[in-house]
Amino acid sequence: MPTLFDPVRLGATEMSNRILMSPMTRARSTADHVPTDMMVEYYAQRAGAGLILSEATGISAEGLGWPYAPGIWNQAQIEAWKPITAAVREQGGKIFCQLWHMGRVVHPSLPGRGQPVSSSATTSPEDVYTYNGKQPAVEARSLARAEIQRIVDDYRAAALNAAAADFDGVQVHAANGYLIDQFLRDSVNLRDDEYGGSISNRVRFLREVVAAVLDAVGAQRTAVRLSPNEARKGVNDSNPTALFEAASIEMSALGIAFIEIREPGFSGTNGQAERPPIGPAMRRAFDGKFVLNSDFDALKAQAALDAGLADAISFGRPFISNPDLPARMARKLALAPDDMATWYLGGAKGYTDYPTAT
Ligand SMILES: Cc1cc2nc3c(=O)[nH]c(=O)nc-3n(C[C@H](O)[C@H](O)[C@H](O)COP(=O)(O)O)c2cc1C
Known about the structure:
8-stranded parallel β-barrel, binds flavin mononucleotide, TIM Barrel, 14 strands
């Protein structure tokens, strides 16, 4: 059985270990969603990961509702990502860009945004981010079919921009209740056209987005993130096992490099998930590499590899406060705790000031 510290190849990407940094929004870009110098240092510090998945990155202003999160739809953003990908490469690391459209949780008070869009005319039950704190969400309007094609093209353009910024690949963010999830799940997708109703129809938008993205950058440089086993932002499904098994089969047919899933509470072979895990069924349905996330430590991660449940494990919060996480895990050192108060605070505190182990 491989260890966490053995190399693995995810599509075209050779990883020096089986530890990924999971995508994490940190809100350190400009108000115009242009990456900053501070981000160069932050990502370079974490280049010991076998692969970094960037923070969620807007494919368009319409799809980005998080203050100070980065985008990748214009030239200024592409140019500002270049020193980040170069610095990660310089340190021997690899980095994918996570492509993001937030759908109904974008607030119209953000500059240049209109009424948010979604699969159907629904309203997020959770408050959403604005530059003046969190505010109640506004009802989304249902996307017309021509607009869906335009958004698919936005994903394609963003993937090309990510390649221009020298990312090693892209990850389509289809998790956590954002736009693609709003198409996938039947609590929010109320459409009666070919994008709604049956599972195959609800998976259609994901399939079209991924097909466009891999047309741009190649299947071996394309990944997808899904969160099968939880309801986020009021987006839920009546039969998630069947839905995500079908989605995995479709992704397999497209030949993408890997699926990463966020399955909370899952604890490898040593414990029970709150709900039965869907990951094993997805792994069986998917031919490519499979990455598990959420609530892992080194022991649980190794147990999941030993049990054949995944090819690699991604870690989120531990990477915030332990920039040299793989080295610390290899040396079995205690991990530093992160500070939730600084997750989205802006500035260096809680961002680039966590030391490496001595
Ligand atoms: C500060 C923070 C920001 C996050 N932002 C994103 C994001 O941009 N995209 C995403 O897919 N998940 C995001 N997540 C979820 C993480 O990638 C990960 O799934 C979660 O933290 C669970 O993994 P962990 O237990 O290893 O931390 C975020 C989590 C945190 C703590």
